[in-house]
Amino acid sequence: MTRIGLLSDTHGLLDRRIFEHFKDVDEIWHAGDIGSAEVLQALREFKPTRAVYGNMDSGDVRYSLPEFYRFRVEEVNVLMTHIGGYPGKYNPWLIPWFRKSLEAKQQMLNDQISNVKCQISNLKSQISNDNIDLFVCGHSHILKVQYDNTYKFLTMNPGAAGKQGWQPCQTLLRFTIDGAKIDNLEVIELERK
After folding, report:
1. DSSP sequence for 40-80
2. Most CB atoms within 10 A, among 7, 73, 86, 159?
3. Is the overall model pTM greater than 0.85, yes or no?
């Protein structure tokens, strides 16, 4: 089991309370608008950190991180970017990736149906790298977790962990990945000081 702490939109402010809430996580994911190389460095010194740059990040952050980050944690394929949207209102650049993921899932299902007698280990080896199980983004400052029935993956936006913007409180997400299962989702609200 891998414990994840997810945040976005710190905009240069790394609230010390984040360290308390993420003390037991195995990895931190930052979905962009980090705000400074110092914030990124502090997170990396605290826990292993995966991150993408956001539209407000300057060169020192932008040049050290990808815009789109695909990775796998246990059996969950993740796509993370800053400006992503949500089901029905995605960034148009992402739609081809999502369609490819859906096609990969449909092909995998077809392969499973036609090869019912195959062993589970053989089926796992057929899983495509194009598959997306979890889509993570930031940007909107609106915390939202929603399953996309069209593309068949979970979307997560942790809202904003910084104070810049209109949001009434700072928000974080904490959850676990256990094999192919995304579980134990917690919403953390930090009162604005």
Report:
1. HHHHHHHS-EEE---TT--HHHHTTS-SEEEEEETTEEEEE
2. 7
3. yes
